[in-house]
Amino acid sequence: xxxxxxxxxxxxxxQIRRLLEITLxxxxxxxxxxxNGKEGITDAATHHPALVILDLGLPDMDGQEVLTKLREWxxxxxxxxxxxxxxxxxxxxxxxGANDYLTKPFRTGELLARIRAAIRSSDHTGDDAILxxxxxxxxxxxxxxxxxxxxxxxxxTEFSLLALLAKNSGRVLTHQYILKEVWxxxxxxxxxxxxxxxxxxxxxxxxxxxxxxxxxxxxxIGYRFSE
Length: 227
Fold this sequence. Notes:
The protein is an alpha/beta fold. The chain has helices at residues 14-26, 37-47, 63-70, 87-95, 108-123, 156-167, 175-182, 191-205; strands at 6-10, 30-34, 51-54, 78-82, 100-103, 130-133, 136-139, 144-147, 150-152, 172-174, 215-218, 222-225. It has a five-stranded parallel sheet, with helices on both faces. It has a four-stranded antiparallel sheet with strand order 6-7-8-9, covered by helices on one side. A three-stranded antiparallel sheet has the order 10-12-11.
């Protein structure tokens, strides 16, 4: 059983709600369902879910607006589940604060894995934590990174990049978001700059840099730190 956390589903499609309710209930999650955006925002405030699954095509307001309103106060993971599959729509949702984005139709096994990763990531504490990912450990306070107990020397920029991705493990971060957070607004178009640093990090922390398991590329969108 995965857990007994509350998951809020905001989706107006009855079949999807029923499928999600059955799938998630079997894994021990408690389900709250909302059929439109306004109801979803209210239910999020009332039930304090561990995670929200949000459709973008809602009858009363666009899901992107719901996402923006939730992010004014709700800090737990939000996974967008939508038929909209354009790169522009996906990037917009991620930049608006979504932790992940899956397109319909979807595989339930993949959704469950994304939910587990998002909830684990949200359970990590702040900048004083030591994060563990298999043989890799990242000490956020002392800026010490070890793999198989051996110290890995990183530049300050490399550590900042790794820390940002690791703290958001399981979440897709867009190129622009990473560049803004690590280098500042003046670098948001410098995607080649980011690729160079990702390649450097992979050489230092991946078992096989040519087939990365930790720093995963989301083509055309950004990167995901995968546990």
